[in-house]
Design goal:
This protein is α/β, with parallel strands linked by helices. 42% of the residues lie in helices and 16% in strands. The protein is built from 14 helices and 13 strands. The protein has a seven-stranded mixed beta sheet with strand order 2-1-3-4-5-12-11, with helices on both faces. A six-stranded mixed beta sheet has the order 7-6-8-9-10-13, with helices on both faces. Helix 10 links the parallel strand 6 and strand 7. Helix 9 packs parallel to helix 10. The protein is elongated, with a radius of gyration of 25 Å. The termini are far apart.
Length: 354
C-alpha cells in the first residue's frame, strides 16, 4: 500500500487560488497578507491537511519554534519536587498557545553544562528559560557565550559581568516580603522563639527569604537559624537540630512547603503539638503538599504556574527590558532587582498549622 504524498505549498496555492509566495507568507505568520486572501489559504490548509515543513520554514524565518528549558538541578530533584512541575506547566501552556516546542535540559555536573552549552550554541532553539540557578553555577556565562535570548526564573545573583548584569530579564516572586509576612503572622500568634529553616543559601530565593525573616524580628538569635536545602529530608534534619539546641522554640518559618513537611514530621515524632506547642508556616502553597500535611499547612502563596507562563511570554515577545505582569506585579524588588525583573506579589494562606 503506497503512502499518499504530503500536500505541498503549490497544492495549497492551487486550492486557494493564490500564489505560492502568498501561501508561504500566511503559513509563516506574515501579517502583511490581506485577510480575505489569508482566510482562503487557511481554509485550503485545513481542507488538504497541509503540515508546514519546520526545517524548511526555519530557513526562511530563521526561527526554530522551539525553546530550551534549562533546570540547574539533577533529574531526581526535578521529578520529585512539585515546584518544577507547576512551573513547567505554566511554561508549556504559553509555548503551546504559540505552537512552540519545549525542549527540557537538566544539568547535574560539568559534563552536562558543556552539553547544554553546545546545544544552545548549535542553533536548535530560539531561546532559553533557565531556573533554579546556584550562585557558583557556570550556566549564565555558558548561555551568554551561546548568544541565545534568555529569561531567568528567579532574581539573578551570580557575579555581574558585561552583558548579563542587572538587565538580565527574569521573573520572580516577592520572596522577602512574603517571608516578612509569614514571620509577622507568627509574632501575631504570640510566638516568641521563632526559628527559620532556610533554603539552600547559594540561591537568591533562600537569601531573600532569610532577609525577610530578619526584617520581621527586632533581635535574631543565630541559634534559631538552620540551613536547609528546600527538601523534606533537609527540613527533618534542621528541625531535629533546632529542637536539640533550642527546645523552647515555639514558631518555625520554613523556606518552602517541602521543608515544612519534613519539620512537621519531626515535631510529631517528638510529641510537639502543632500549632499549640509550635506553629509552622511554609512558603509556596503547593497544594499537593500544603493541603496534605498533618495539620494542613499555613504558607505563603506564590503563583508558580503564572511565573512560568510569564517567563515564556517574555521570551516569546523578545523583551529584553522591563516587563509588567498582571495586576500587583512589580518591576524591581528589594534585594537587587533590576529594571528587567517581573516580581509577582505573594499572599499568606492560613490553614491549621499556624
Amino acid at each position: 500500500m503506497t503512502e499518499e504524498p504530503r500536500p505541498t505549498l503549490e497544492a495549497v496555492a492551487a486550492r486557494a487560488g493564490v500564489s505560492r509566495a502568498t501561501v508561504s507568507r500566511v503559513v509563516n505568520g506574515d501579517p502583511g497578507v490581506r485577510e480575505v486572501l489569508a482566510e482562503k489559504v487557511r481554509r485550503a490548509v485545513d481542507e488538504l491537511g497541509y503540515v508546514p515543513n519546520r526545517a524548511a520554514r526555519s530557513l526562511v524565518t530563521r526561527r526554530h519554534d522551539a525553546v530550551a528549558v534549562v533546570i540547574a538541578e539533577p533529574e531526581t530533584r526535578v521529578f520529585a519536587d512539585p515546584f518544577f512541575a507547576l512551573q513547567l506547566r505554566g511554561i508549556s501552556k504559553e509555548l503551546t498557545a504559540h505552537d512552540v516546542q519545549l525542549v527540557l535540559l537538566l544539568t547535574e555536573g560539568r559534563d552536562d553544562h558543556e552539553r547544554v552549552g553546545r546545544y544552545l550554541a548549535g542553533g536548535h532553539v530560539d531561546g532559553a528559560l533557565v531556573f533554579s540557578l546556584h550562585l557558583d553555577d557556570p550556566l549564565p556565562g555558558i548561555i551568554r557565550r551561546a548568544g541565545v535570548p534568555t529569561v531567568f526564573g528567579g532574581r539573578p545573583g551570580w557575579p555581574q559581568t558585561a552583558g548579563d548584569g542587572p538587565d538580565a530579564p527574569y521573573v520572580d516572586c516577592d520572596n522577602r516580603g512574603g517571608a516578612r509576612e509569614a514571620v509577622r503572622h507568627l509574632v501575631g500568634l504570640g510566638c516568641r522563639r521563632i526559628a527559620h529553616i532556610t533554603g539552600a543559601l547559594d540561591q537568591t530565593s533562600a537569601v531573600d527569604r532569610l532577609d525577610g525573616y530578619r526584617d520581621a524580628l527586632a533581635d535574631v538569635d543565630p541559634a534559631l537559624i538552620v540551613e536547609g536545602d528546600f527538601t523534606p529530608a533537609g527540613g527533618e534534619r534542621a528541625m531535629r537540630e533546632l529542637l536539640d539546641r533550642t527546645p523552647d522554640v515555639d514558631g518555625v518559618f520554613a523556606a518552602n512547603d517541602l521543608t515544612a513537611s519534613g519539620a512537621l514530621r519531626v515535631l510529631r515524632e517528638r510529641g510537639r503539638r502543632v500549632p499549640d506547642d509550635v506553629a509552622v508556616v511554609g512558603f509556596d502553597d503547593m497544594l499537593p503538599v500544603a493541603e496534605q500535611t498533618e495539620p494542613p499547612l499555613t504558607t505563603v502563596r506564590q503563583d508558580i504556574e503564572e511565573m512560568g507562563r510569564l517567563m515564556a511570554g517574555m521570551l516569546l515577545r523578545g523583551r529584553g527590558g522591563a516587563e509588567r505582569g498582571p495586576a500587583g506585579a512589580e518591576g524591581g524588588a528589594e534585594g537587587g532587582a533590576g529594571p528587567a525583573g517581573v516580581v509577582l506579589p505573594t499572599a499568606l494562606v492560613r490553614r491549621a498549622s499556624a
